[in-house]
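Service request form, structural biology core

Requester: graduate student, group of Dr. S.
Request type: structure prediction, single chain
Budget code: on file
Notes: please return the result as structure tokens.

Sequence provided:
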Amino acid sequence: MNSYKSQVSSLHSGSKQSSKSKTKDYKKIGIEYWRFFLYSFISVTLSFFYINNGWSHLYPNQINIIGKTKIKNNLVLDASKLNFPISLFSIKPKTLEENLLKNLPIKNAGIRRYLIPPGLEIEIQERKAISYAIRNGLNGKEKGMLDVDGYWIPIKIAEKAQPLKPNLQVEGWISNHREWISKVLSKRNQLGSPLLKIILTPNGELKLSTEEFKIIYFGKNPNLVDEQLKVLAYLSENLPSEFRDKVGTIVDISDPNRPELQIPTK
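Core staff response, request fulfilled:
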């Protein structure tokens, strides 16, 4: 009799445990359903905003142009070659960047698209022209400007940044000697006298002209330029005034270890 009762009792407790287990399972399934519904709702909502905002029309007032530059916003928009109104998805950042670099005096252009709210941000880093320049082109001599890195900027493009009018000019610019020119430009204020002209001759020689010296011969070796610039600054600061103030003085520092002076007799 006791064994029968114990069997009934164990069956009864087993049925209770089974009922509790089923209840927990139903709760888990319910939670999973709600999670699935919530995630699906969020995904659908985000997809809607993504598609809707991505294909909505952008206008010029939704373009944010940032960066320290004197280039006016309307010139940036013109250079972008974007036809407004335009959808955000239709804008190709790489093509836009190439258009800006081609048509503006800038070093870099960063493009960022925003979906919420729909908009476009253009960050530009300007090339500041510090020298006029002349080079030999296919149609004769061409006029342009250079930044401190020696990069050529066509005169019409340089003028978009409203550059200051420098007293410095580079004659005979060629791309092969850009770094050579850049080293001189970067030290232009450390030569002891204002730099007026940089000349690259057809045979590959570099010459400078300052307020103190009519001509400074650097020769043909770009590897010596750092040492030559130091020698020039030393001579400008330490030569007696009768040499420095003599109009037409010529300096030859093609060998920086043996600088030579030519003083006009008259």
